[in-house]
Structure formats: structure tokens, C-alpha cells
Design goal:
single chain; about 325 residues; alpha+beta; seven-stranded mixed sheet; three-stranded antiparallel sheet; 8 helices; 10 strands; about 25% strand; binds alpha-D-galactopyranose
């Protein structure tokens, strides 16, 4: 039985494949060299007491958790969401006293919340002396995120941070949850750059998920759709959303092939095309992000750049030749 835990989980940046995960499409994120760490010890009281270096207020959660969405302060909802999901599986979690440290910028679209959730899940499983596969941990944490934040996110962030390897892209089929680890070739590097803080809570993220649901009611599963299916959609907004998802899934396939053939120029072009599709058809970028992408492309060595993650702010990612 483990009494003391020290668990680190990385953040992620998405190379290509945004707003495709919640319709079971393809994504290609990779983990970052920035981590959220949970350290602490098992407690006798049935209560989780956590402090965080980045948050003013500590979190105190009595077990079993009643309503994670009502926990204060807000960051405690992610913790409570995870504990409550574990409890639903009949896993009896002991009390815990500990602290959270992170080198990830919070609220910047680099999956600081997924890293926190996965770290909490692993810490809780350790002190409960229970095992769970990385995929099941990711699915549990996705459910926790839905409950804690109300954002109907896909599986990309939780699965990438749970299963990813350093300096390696994670090609995920978000329907089958098959994962392929693809090493980043030595000739190139991935550059992540902060643009602005953002939160998906209360953003248009949920509206995009709903748009996709409406598209699927017309043409069936987006992950199986082709460009020809667009003819069946008359509503302009839904047409744009569908066009983004269908073309983005293809771009992920082409990007993975380009990387393996060391065709870096094509990989860069695909990233730029992804950005334009997100900006114009999916409308999840903004002027600041578009300018940041243009500025990056003017710097020497950059082959491609795009907004990354949910959008409406956050970070951009670029591919640079060494
Ligand atoms: C957020 C969500 C993910 C995914 C991206 C967009 O990061 O948490 O599930 O939908 O946005 O690709």
C-alpha cells in the first residue's frame, strides 16, 4: 500500500487535428516538457486537502463527493470530478493531504486541466492500491471534465497526457482510441508560443459540438463523411463546420504520412491549411491568433504554424527546420 505519492503529468500541444475528437476523428498532439505534479500522503480523515502554488485558495473535499460542479474554489471541481468518477466505479478512495505544483501555464490551451485530472486520478489510484489502464484513466478524466467544467470536450487532451511519450507525437483515432506513437524527426522542432489566456468554459466550444451533432443528423458520422456529403447540407454555417472536420481528418492522415516520409514542407503546408480552416470555416481563431501565425511564418526556418487546441485564444504551434 502506497502512503506517499509524487506524480507528474505533462501538458500537450496539438500538432494538427483540432475540433475533430468529439466526432471520433483523428488528432495528432504531443506531450510538452511542462508538468503538473501532485505530491502528498494518505490521510486518516476521509477528506482531500490540497494546496496549489498557483492558486490562492486551497481545496478541501469531503469524501464521498456529492456534487463536483458545486465545489469552491473552481479548480477544486476538477479534483472533485475525478474523485467522484472513481467513486462511481466502486473504488474506495482514502483521504489525502498534498500539494499541486505546475510548470504549465494555466488557462493557455495546453491542457493544464487534463494534466491535473490525470495526476489526481493516478494519485488516488495509488493510495487506494488500485490499477487502471491509461485509456480508462483518460476516459474517466474526460467524464470528470464534463462534470467539473460543463465543457463537452473530446478525448484528445486526457488521452495524450496519459499515454504520450516525450518528443513523440501521438496519432489518435478518437473513435477506436487506437494510438500510434510517431517520433518527431531530428531535422525539425515543434515550437509552442503563448498568445493569450482563454477558458473554454462559457465559450463557443459547446456550440461547435452542437453544430457537429446537427451535421451528423443530416449526413451521418462525420468521421466517415467525405467531401461529397457536403452537398446534402443547405445551412451555410453547418456546411462550414462539416467542411472543416472532413478536411481536417484528411489533413491529419496526410500530415502523419508527410512526417514519416520526411516531407517537412508538406507537413508545414498542412498546418497552415488547418489554421485557415479553423479560422474561416470553424471560426475558432481570432485576429491576435491569426497575426501570431503570420508573424511566426516570417521568422527563419518555419515551415508551418497554426492555432492549437480549442481556440478563442490560447497558443499557436509551429514547425521549424533546425
Ligand atoms: C479542447 C478540448 C479537446 C479538443 C480541442 C480542440 O482542447 O478539450 O477535446 O476538442 O479543444 O481540438
Amino acid at each position: 500500500m502506497t502512503d506517499t505519492v509524487h506524480i507528474s503529468v505533462p501538458g500537450r500541444v496539438n500538432l494538427i487535428g483540432d475540433h475533430t475528437d468529439y466526432t471520433g476523428g483523428l488528432v495528432m498532439p504531443m506531450t510538452l516538457d511542462m508538468y503538473t505534479t501532485v505530491s502528498g500522503t494518505r490521510a486518516i480523515e476521509p477528506r482531500w486537502l490540497l494546496t496549489s502554488h498557483d492558486e490562492r485558495e486551497p481545496v478541501s473535499i469531503s469524501l464521498p463527493v456529492n456534487n463536483p460542479a458545486h465545489v469552491e474554489p473552481l479548480w477544486g471541481r476538477y479534483v472533485a470530478g475525478v474523485l467522484s468518477e472513481l467513486n462511481k466505479l466502486g473504488i474506495d478512495i482514502p483521504g489525502f493531504t498534498g500539494e499541486i505544483n505546475t510548470t504549465l501555464p494555466i488557462g493557455s490551451g495546453l491542457s493544464s486541466s487534463a494534466a491535473l485530472e490525470v495526476a489526481i486520478a493516478r494519485a488516488a489510484l495509488d493510495i487506494a492500491n488500485r490499477q487502471m489502464s491509461d485509456t480508462d484513466i483518460a476516459l474517466l478524466c474526460q467524464r470528470a471534465e464534463h462534470i467539473a467544467s460543463g465543457v463537452p470536450c473530446g478525448i484528445m487532451d486526457q488521452l495524450c497526457v496519459a499515454i504520450g511519450k516525450p518528443n513523440t507525437a501521438t496519432l489518435i483515432d478518437c473513435h477506436s482510441l487506437d494510438v500510434q506513437h510517431v517520433a518527431i524527426p531530428d531535422e525539425i522542432e515543434v515550437v509552442t508560443r503563448f498568445v493569450s489566456h482563454r477558458t473554454l468554459v462559457g465559450s463557443e466550444y459547446s456550440e461547435r459540438v452542437e453544430d457537429c451533432r446537427q451535421v451528423e443528423a443530416i449526413i451521418g458520422p462525420l468521421r466517415l463523411a467525405t467531401i461529397n456529403d457536403l452537398q446534402k447540407i443547405t445551412d451555410q454555417r453547418l456546411l462550414q463546420r462539416a467542411r472543416h472536420v472532413i478536411t481536417e481528418n484528411q489533413r491529419v492522415r496526410d500530415f502523419a504520412a508527410a512526417l514519416s516520409q520526411k516531407d517537412f514542407a508538406s507537413a508545414g503546408r498542412l498546418m497552415l491549411a488547418s489554421h485557415h480552416s479553423l479560422a474561416n470555416d470553424y471560426e475558432t481563431s481570432n485576429d491576435q491568433m491569426n497575426r501570431a501565425v503570420q508573424d511566426m511564418m516570417r521568422e527563419p526556418g518555419f515551415l508551418g504554424a497554426r492555432m492549437t487546441g480549442g481556440g478563442f485564444g490560447g497558443c499557436i504551434v509551429g514547425l521549424r527546420r533546425h
